[in-house]
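User: Teach me something about this protein's shape.
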Amino acid sequence: MAEFGLPALFTLLIWWSSTGLIIFLDGLRRETFRWTMLGATTLLLTGLFGLHVLAHDTSVTAAWLGFVCGVLCWAWIEIAFLTGAVTGPRRTAIPPDLSGWPRLRAAIAVLLWHELAIMALAAAIVALTWGAPNQIGTWTFLAFWAMRQSAKLNLYLGVRNLSESFLPDHLRYLESYFARRRMNLLFPVSVIAGVTAVVMLALAAMAPDATRHETVGLTLLATLVVLGLLEHVFMVLPVPADVLWRWGLASRTREGRQEPSSAA
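Assistant: First, the predicted structure itself:
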């Protein structure tokens, strides 16, 4: 059981600690963001280098490290967005009565550079690992992308719990793009797709002919998708997800809390 339990526990710890750390860093004063981005970019380059080096390594260690490299690459995406370094050409709120195509167009503009950065980084990762047997890091990044894209769409269409407390002050204008509803038609589709992915990954990890590399790597991925599903479930619960990361949100209540951006 350790071959399944340890990867699952490791993924849980990485997910919880890295999310909290990113929330903490993005809640600090804005003059710290240059150092945060410098550190994140260094880790990004380390992750890309690691993915390339590990691409043809099918050992158990390579599965663990490939997963970590994928997490490092995705962390840059999250940090770049939440610091406001890579968002979109639009940085203002929308009127509450805006709907239809104008609202959708504004929502695209507010995230455009962010989405293009994800596509560019995904293409780079795929290119670095193309045709290689160790795809754990690549699939880790793509799993993050799929789960985050689903979360964005559900927030746009409307869910009960918007978790707006995670937004730093300089991104408060994004709240105007969220909709509060009990449910939307996409949400059950997102959950079904996530559950299907978990089942497929779990079955592949437990297959009799699976190598130790595949067992560990697929368990890491399956657990990651389960945690993504958990984030989706919090969207429709009366309990906000921020109860899991109160320590990360502490940076926004300190004396050095950043001043809101004029664009917000």
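Now, about its shape. The chain has eight helices and no strands. The two ends are 50 Å apart (CA to CA). If you'd like, I can walk through any region in more detail.
User: That's plenty for now, thanks!
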